[in-house]
Design brief:
single chain; Arc Repressor Mutant; about 0% strand; toxic substance binding; toxin-antitoxin system; RelB/DinJ; cis-regulatory region sequence-specific DNA binding; DinJ
């Protein structure tokens, strides 16, 4: 019996590059990162982070942001804070 097994997965090239840059900054290889994820899944008996469907308001805000609609620009962080006091 083999001491290791292979995993094959297809991901978008940009996503792969971005994730591997983060792994590198953390000193991890992709194999180590995948192993870490699998270990956390087994320890948590599920995903090690919450996975939720956003509510309608959040979905609308995400849609607006992606489409560049209904956005408000602020000249500075102070201006944003002042508007929400």
């Amino acid at each position: 019996m083999s001491k290791t097994e292979s995993i094959r997965a297809r991901v978008e090239p940009d996503l792969k590059a971005q994730a591997e840059a983060v792994f590198g900054a953390l000193g991890l290889t992709p194999t180590e990162a995948i192993t870490l994820f699998y270990r956390q899944v087994t320890l948590h008996h599920g995903l090690p982070f919450p996975v939720r469907i956003p509510n309608e308001a959040t979905q609308a805000a995400l849609r607006d942001a992606m489409e560049g609609e209904n956005l408000t620009e602020w000249s500075s962080l102070d201006a944003l804070k002042a508007a929400h006091r």
